[in-house]
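User: I'm curious whether this sequence folds into something compact or stays loose and floppy. Could you predict its structure so I can see for myself?
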Amino acid sequence: MQVLIAGGTGFIGRALRVYLEGMNIDTKVLTRKASESYHVAWTPELKTCDISQLRDVTHIINLTGEGIADKRWTKQRKKVLISSRIETTIFLHSLAQKHCPKLIGYVGISGVNAFGFGDEKIHQENEPFGADFLSQLVKDWEEAHKAFDFLPVFSILRLGMVLSPDGGAYEKIAKPMRLGFGAIPGKGSQWVPWVHLKDVVHVIHIGLTQSQGLIHLVAENSSMKELTEAIAQKEQRKIYLPNIPPFMIRLIFGEMGGLLTESVRISNEKLLSFYALKHPHLSTL
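Assistant: Here's the prediction. I'll summarize afterward.
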């Protein structure tokens, strides 16, 4: 087995590569800035890649995509969010077809924000997409992944908010707490589906040998208040400031602010049919 991780230098990708190497799985990482022996140079927007290192790849893990919550969603930013997922995946597929003759498995990621916001329904994998920008982005992203579904092993993992003290969303929430500026976004009652980084890594590893199709990778749905307070407890900090009003979040972040203020509830029933979560509750962060 030789695994190629696209998007392997990000929060999830770094942890995944270390884990797979620890399992004695030969792992390479596609990156624009190749500086390590396990790096494979590519520039997807220019359609260039060091194809000489692809011939022995048996599995691809596709984690590509600019951070959804990194910047305000201007028209230009939306184009970047789309192209860094869809166009990059299309280019990855063309590389695989031409230069990966041993390829037998593929794992792609997407997000649980596929159904719009605001209702109390617990959504299953087979339900229709919402009409908002993020739902349609997930829809197009998953369609791009499906170009690989001819392979013997194929999965798409819809991730909830990925939490770990090692970085990511946890760090963004914890950082102001350490400075004494911790506050709960919005009303605090909005639902947030989340999953621990270690469970993400383990389920991706399973996906290298077992086809799962489309899976919601979520530990549980917690309120924003519960989630923020759990991180504060982990950081041994108190939350002194009042909740940040939804209108203020919208003023600062625009449309992207809905990620912090709106609810979505996600079923993990299918996931639990084959995987026992290592971090099933916020108390296990």
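Summary: The first helix runs from residue 11 to 22. The radius of gyration is 19 Å.
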